[in-house]
């Protein structure tokens, strides 16, 4: 049964999230899973890739020229400006601290390329975080499932979690305010969740999750698979034992458009999203 509290995080919080995290500027999320990430660059317009890591950039000879591609790196972000069109080129980024390598396939186009900022999300670095926070989750299970707890500042925990998750994915890292007791946790979810929005032609991909006082927020990327239809998003269409949901954008554009992807922040109480989805098996993680 879907127990989603659609109204809890609606209205004012949606406006707050959009102004604080995005300032009305859309961001494309790419999930690094050791496969090269495809990035199109619009000729003549700068595009930003945010990794929140200090990286070295390795360019192939064909584009290692500022007259072809200008590359700047600062504050965990890469600033790319293609000055002329070029075919797909493999670019290598290496984390200065860990030596981890991320691969991008860059293509510069005269037409049809988005100039949205890109946020790269990395796999969980600390799977043990979910175990460390299990006691806080179990302590909350005996309470009222429909009552939102309050943080030390008096703000409901679901609101705190949703705001923090949106800022973590969309805002510069220097602007994110730490929250005591809030930890990023392992999601233990499959790469795709067809049971989350079964009535729509949408691919739902989990991105990251955070936990506080037994509550969990999970960011899920939604991508439209239909090239001929755009549609509004309604939290009541989400399936599962969910407390609340907040969409970063109110609608999805047709597949292939710059508006064909958004993120939904789903809050669950006393259980992870993996256990809250339909057909989930077993007890709480």
Report what the structure shows:
With about 280 residues, the protein is α+β, with helices and mostly antiparallel strands. The protein has two domains: about 10-25 and about 125-275, no CATH class; about 35-120, Sandwich (Immunoglobulin-like), CATH 2.60.40. Helix content is about 15%, strand content about 35%. The protein contains five helices and 16 strands. The protein has a five-stranded mixed sheet with strand order 1-9-3-6-5, with no helix packed on it. The chain has a five-stranded antiparallel sheet with strand order 10-11-12-16-14. Helix 1 runs parallel beside helix 4. About 35% of the residues are buried. Mean pLDDT is about 80; it is low at about 5-25, about 125-145 and about 280-285. InterPro entries: Integr_conj_element_PFL4704.
Radius of gyration: 20 Å
Task: Work out the number of β strands.
Answer: 16
- Overall pLDDT: 79
The residue ranges in which pLDDT falls below 50 over 5 or more consecutive positions are 6-25, 125-146, 281-285
Strand order of the largest sheet: 1-9-3-6-5
Which structural category fits the helices and strands?
Answer: alpha+beta
Number of domains: 2
Number of helices: 5
Q: Please trace the helix and strand order, writing H or E for each element.
A: HEEEEEEEEEHHHEEEEEEEH
Q: Work out the strand percent.
A: 25-35%
Q: How would you describe the oligomerization state of the chains in this entry?
A: single chain
Termini Cα gap: 20 Å
Q: Mind summarizing the main beta sheet?
A: 5 strands, mixed
Helix content: 10-25%
- Overall 3D shape: globular
Signal peptide: 1-26
Pfam family, one: DUF3438
Protein name: TIGR03749 family integrating conjugative element protein
Keywords: Signal
